[in-house]
Design brief:
Elements: H1 2-25, H2 32-39, H3 43-49, H4 53-76, H5 82-99, H6 101-110, H7 114-133, H8 143-160, H9 168-183, H10 186-191
Amino acid sequence: MPQQRRAQVTRRAIVVAAAEEFDRVGFDATPLSAILRRSGVTKGAFYFHFPSKDAVAAALVRFQAQVWSKIWQRWTSRGLDPLSTAVELVDEVVRILEHDVVVRAGARLAMRDQDTVTRWEQLLAGLLRSSAENGLLRPEVDPVAATRVLYATLVGVRVLSASRAIGVAQQTGEIWRLVLGGIATADWLRDNPSVPAAAPRPS
């Protein structure tokens, strides 16, 4: 058992070190030596756990996928309306990306795959379509167009976050304030006073 525990600690040290380096300079610019130096692990110990740097990246991608799957299942099973689900889901995702370097690095690696990008946009689109079908969006709002605008804005915040003093969570709140004020019905805004939305316009 102690040996198994040490192996788990070593593997975790490699994963965290790789995530920190990938997050700092990117996957391509990260040499194996940087991961070894940051983790304090020997090359032999590294290769005992992972055959290559690519294998560590694959582990990070799998881990972040597991995290998002659990979050999706948790929020979609709470019985909230689809628009509230979208808001709460996105907000939790943003908080995790801001504070968890392992998930953040894995997500950035995953986003290099266009299928992953499309899947996230489709999930958000499904929630906004359901919102429209349930009368939570203003009649003139196209949920597909709203998804494109919202998703592009959220991705843009992630890309620009490193060069801004304002945190991603705060910027996401500003996005919701503007977007929800433009797409949500006055009734939904009134019934969800805790959501960071603009003051509802007259019906």
